[in-house]
Amino acid sequence: MNPLRLHRPSVLGRARADVRLLLLTGGVVALTSLLTAAVPPLAERTADRAVAGTVRQAGAGGDVVVTVPFPDDTESAARVREPSSAAQVQQASREAQLTMPADLNAVLRPGVASVTTTELHVLGGGPGRYARLAYVVGRDGAPAVTWTSGGPPRASVPPAQATAKVPDGDPWPVQVALSQAAATALGLRTGDTFAAEDERYRRVEARVSGIYSPTDPAADAWQAAPRLLHPSTGVTEKVVRTSAAALVSAESLPDLRLAVPFDDLDRRVVFTPQPDRLRYDQSEALVRDVVALKASSAVDANGTPTMWWDSLLDRVLLDARSQVVAARAQATVLLVGLLAGAALLLVLAAQLLTRRRAAALAVARERGAGLVAIGAELLVESAAVAVVGAGVGVLAARLLVGGASWPWTLPVLAVAALAGPVLGVLVVSRAGGGRRVPANRSARRTAARAKVARRILLEATVALVAVAALAALRQRGVLGGGDEPDLLAASAPTWFAVLGALVVLRLLPPVAAFVLARSRRSPRAVPLFAAAGAVRTATRALPMLLVTVTAAQLTVCVALAATEQHGQSAGAWREVGADAQLQTDPDRGVGQLAQRVAGAPGVTAAVAARVADGVPAASGQTAARVRLVVVDAAAFAKLLAATPLPDAPQLERLAPGATTGTPALLRGGDPALREGLRIGWDDARLPLHVVGTAPAIGSGEDPVVVVDAAAFAATGAAADPGTVWAVGPGAVRALEAAAHGAAAPGSAGPGGTVVRRDDVLEARRDAPLAAALRHLAIASAALLLLFGVLGVVLAAAVAAPARNESLGRLRAMGLRPGQVGRVLGGELVPPVAVGVVAGLVLGLGSAAVMFGSLALQRVTGQTGPPDVVLPWWTVLLAAALVVAALVVAQVESSQLRRTSLARLLRGGDRGLD
């Protein structure tokens, strides 16, 4: 006889009898598979969008730039005009394109070549006019323009003199063209000639050949010199400063090389990334390509570099990769907790299914069915349900998100397929005499000790794994030091919840027994019967594990989403520093503007400051670049008090005369920087005396140095403010009005930009990684809540026959219907309530202990881990499990009330389930 021969009628009959429970199992598998199968493809797309967004946000910081200087001809007595200068620029661009690795070249736009001068001071017509001379050429040649007057720049000599020799030091004219905006800003017209000089007072002669307007202002070629189309105007020391650029054509480029000193010319090719072509999986290779490219350089026979590369694209990509890896690790934490809850629910459903079939399986065993055959029949049924459920989930994921991944569905598929057969075989083997009880008392005592030892061993194993997971998380972090999440570290919150549930299971029976002992002294029957039922329920491990783990993981999901949102809000406050910030050119009038803003309606506080990045700082042992903030300390303290930002009481130490030397506050950097700190400012070295820790100002990780404006001015240094912070409901409106009206003398200048905190916060929350994690946390929390409610219902259903039979007999013996309901509630609700409370405590403990190792700051955009936040309404979500227990108690009580006393007296309540 074939032991694996299946009895088809038995398989189909059992399936028809328990179709609702099988559908429930399949539904749990389908829902879990839907989420776990959809996460990987969504994560891949989100990673691609995150990399593209980071590169796009970096702007010019992600450009790949190659500098190709012209040959040095300063040693010759005469310079030769090179009519092929434009061709040389194009050739340099082609050579640079061929030098780049193919993968890097594929994600970059064609290079924009340019020859630009340093900023030249335009002489005559008043002070404050500056201009660069620029030749730009893109993929399609020089940018197209429409001439409103005059024409394109021409060569300064006829074709017969194209290779003329010019004695070194003699001036040489060059023709240039201006955009209408640049001509207006510089006060020049077609046909005007002007002289300019560099910082070493070497003169350049130029003539305006025409005025143009761009055909396509968004063309890549204009990006090489934005001042060609958009001159800037500001006010410095109450003097209007205008900066523009003049266009040089291919014909006048040879004249530019003669007109401008060699060391004032800069020939380069800029390759701009195409964010939509960037993919996360290729970012690591691109980083290697950029690093290798920067390490390479071409030199001439004298060892002088003739081509060198520069780019921050590698740093931008590494930053994007770190954010993606951190987000994937946090998603893994959520998925592991979700799988744990689903697995426990599936095991509980299999336990209920097995108890309902125990009698039928025992009969089949008595009639000659082997354990292997029974296990095979159960496996076929459970595997079919699991495969169909997983298939539905994966198919739904493919239809909803356009892709699906199966590895994360395997654990839930395995549990759903194996839990039922394993439990069924165990029940059949025990019913068929597979587990015999020794007649000898000593042997029974030994067996009992072995059972206790097995439980202790299991609990010790769980404790060791939980400790190992927590140690891995605290030591290596959830990233594990690599690009892939560490599963052991990611499972730490789940193991922590399982261990806590085991501790509760150890403590609950003695507490229930104590309550039972106290209730025996009560003259009322309800407390006694409820306590007796609670003692029986307290010994069931699986329901308590399910309730505790789902409540804990639900708490972790909600805490993760809330903590990241709070961190994004805190990061936006730190980046902007107020409700709104005005950034403009430094000027003394900015301080007066801040005073006017402070008096505007709806403005609580406003203060002006000078914020300078990259200021050189050094001590006797170390050096660094710092962010220098020069601000009125008292006014800044009032501003901070009106914001959620941490107060800075140490600002009081910055008052002039409080200490010897110029007092300063310092945050971050090498601790050795505090001793003998000096900063470089206006070609001077200013000593500072560090008296405390500076408040966090702005984003970034550079050290922050804060000094009082009056104390800084007392040293003779000038630091006109260029930033205005304003707090209050009317801050945005007041600063925007100030920026728009800044053309008045002494005001901030028309170049002011208002940064709103709400915009920064919205951008952070709508970022691909932050939004994806928030949605995953919400979906995981919803499924865990559903699993918890189903677990409460299934746990009650497992013990329902015995409970209803005993309560039915009590009712037949005189227990009133209302008392039956209270007994049911007293038996079902307290264990669930204990599990919920334990889960909330364990979830909050996991968040407090472990969130610091989850690299949440890489998603929130902060410099340090955000403070853990758990909304108060999390208790209401977890309380849904208690409400489910109350509903179950009410339903069972109603069933008992509808059962006749005669039936209860004759056969108990076996038919109610």
UniProtKB/TrEMBL annotation:
Family designation: Belongs to the ABC-4 integral membrane protein family.
Domain ABC3 transporter permease C-terminal: 780-889
Keyword Transmembrane: yes
Ranges that cross the membrane: 331-350, 371-396, 408-431, 452-473, 493-517, 776-800, 832-856, 868-891
Pfam families named in the record: FtsX (PF02687)
Main location: membrane
Protein name: FtsX-like permease family protein
The organism's taxonomic lineage, starting at the top: Bacteria, Bacillati, Actinomycetota, Actinomycetes, Kineosporiales
Top-rank lineage group of the source organism: Bacteria
Mode of membrane association: Multi-pass membrane protein
Alphabetical keyword list: Cell membrane, Membrane, Transmembrane, Transmembrane helix
InterPro entries listed in its UniProt record: ABC3_permease_C, Macrolide_Exporter_MacB
Subcellular location: Cell membrane
